[in-house]
Amino acid sequence: MKKVVPEETKVPEETQSGDIVHIIGSGECDQLGLGVDKPLTARPLKIPYFVNAPIEIQSISCGGMHTAVLTGSGSVLTWGCNDEGVLGRDGPENEPIEVPLSDPIRLVATGDSHTIVVTQSD
What we know:
Layout: E1 22-26, E2 40-46, H1 48-52, E3 57-62, E4 66-71, E5 76-80, E6 97-98, E7 105-110, E8 115-119
Antiparallel strand pairs: 1-2, 3-4, 4-5, 5-6, 7-8
């Protein structure tokens, strides 16, 4: 089945092999994913997770105070504010961590206080 990704979340083709994610803005709720508490960055910073273990990124979705990344292997990484369990996993909020899902993911989207995924059918 063809992968459908909304235009606003597509990552440019030139970044899709060993992708490095850069972040800019407010980190008041750990949504920068830098692994340290940093309240603000006005200049792009590389998220260390993606520098240390480059992966293929299919899409990125940003919620109110959290972010979800869909990888080329069908896993989802989340970081940011985990109120209401929006990250779908335990562990530090300020760094990308894989969500424990048993099925490969086709799509991921975020809202203000939720994350939704679509799994591949058998």
